[in-house]
Design brief:
mainly alpha; Growth Hormone, Chain: A; two-stranded antiparallel ribbon; 10 helices; 57% helix; membrane
């Protein structure tokens, strides 16, 4: 006799229907209480779903969408689009670099080109080490801002590469500065990607999320290189056409990056999010949700954020600078009144006789 104990309808990534069967021996279970029993699993796969299943397994984490946060898909969509524009532009900038080094010219020296390329790589490596030294510990807490900063620096590097052949006297200097900008991009982008991967992974599947992100980036790279080769061939020798395509793609690149970062709804706290939470709580006694905080958070690149923070403190917009954590309750001035000082609202708490200091 076979009895269906449980049945699961396949909503997983593989589209598999699973049935758990509890089977008893031929002896009547009522007559022989200790009759042997077995559990048998039957799995049925939909034949026509294998192609779509393989695509999902190649580019989406296992268990999607339940294994990642809701902001995963919109972020990855915009991130793939910005990556596509980057690889198309990289073909244009690489073409300009090779022209500046002297590829195709009879007067070009192999040793000279090798030395210029060495200086370029050496400057980039040194810049990456120095950037990690001074800013490495700040990348996790400001992942959104550093992500935009990384792409902004990448755009600067590509602009310098594209401009360098026009200024032969400072070609090597511009070559090195472009490499320096891209080294900052590499460090900041890689570090923030690791932080975002931890955010997306809901089932301790950070490795799977990272691997599938790599597949998506590889596909974008392949398509971008093919389209970039076509664009480079069409615009070869036409300076205005090259710059027109480059500027249009750069504008789209920054827009796509802004949209990607705007989709993020991070649940970790940093100074900016704490300031938003405290400001809302002091003004309205409400605790904002992560989505509400994300909508109010400044996501401009870091240089603009620094200026904003300095201006905001002067105008009374930064509550985290004026609130001190870890103080004893005995040091708080309790009372039944409420003090209003300008735009600040200080609410006094009532302390019970049983209250005591902690820490």
């Amino acid at each position: 006799m076979a009895v269906v104990a449980e049945e699961y309808y396949g909503h997983d990534e593989a589209g598999i229907r699973t049935a758990a069967l509890c089977t008893e021996s031929a002896v009547d279970a009522g007559a022989v209480p200790n009759a042997s029993r077995r559990i048998k699993l039957i799995r049925e796969r939909k034949v026509n779903s294998s192609a779509w299943r393989n695509i999902r397994l190649a580019f989406l984490p296992e268990g999607y969408p339940n294994s990642v946060t809701p902001d995963y898909l919109p972020f990855q969509t915009w991130d793939t689009l910005q990556g596509l524009s980057t690889y198309i532009r990289s073909m244009l900038s690489t073409q300009a670099l090779l022209t500046g080094i002297g590829v195709g010219q009879n007067t070009a020296s192999v040793l000279g080109a090798t030395f210029q390329w060495f200086l370029r790589d050496f400057t980039g490596m040194l810049g990456g080490i120095l950037f990690t030294l001074f800013k490495g510990s700040n990348l996790d807490s400001n992942a959104k801002q550093w992500r935009l900063t990384a792409d902004f620096m990448n755009d600067i590097g590509m602009v310098l590469d594209l401009l360098s052949p026009m200024f032969p006297s400072v070609f090597v200097f511009m070559l090195c500065m472009g490499s320096l900008s891209r080294s900052i991009t590499g460090v900041a982008s890689g570090a923030t990607r690791a932080a975002l991967t931890q955010h997306f992974a809901l089932r301790q599947n950070a490795a799977d999320v990272s691997a599938k992100e790599g597949s998506q980036e590889t596909l974008a790279t392949m398509v971008g290189m093919l389209v970039g080769m076509l664009v480079a061939r069409i615009t070869s020798g036409h300076v205005l056409a090259i710059w027109g395509c480059f500027l249009i793609l750069t504008a789209f690149h920054m827009y796509a990056n802004y949209r990607a970062v705007s989709c993020l709804c991070l649940t970790s706290l940093n100074r900016e999010r704490v300031s938003i939470l405290l400001k809302a709580f002091v003004s309205s006694d409400k605790v904002l949700t992560p989505r509400q905080v994300a909508q109010r958070e400044q996501i401009l690149p870091l240089p603009f954020i620094s200026f904003w923070n300095k201006w905001s403190v002067k105008t009374g917009g930064r509550y985290d600078r004026l609130i001190k954590f870890g103080v004893r309750l005995s040091s708080v001035d309790f009372g039944p009144r409420e003090v209003h000082a300008g735009s600040w609202k200080c609410v006094h708490l009532c302390r019970s006789p049983q209250a005591r200091d902690i820490g």
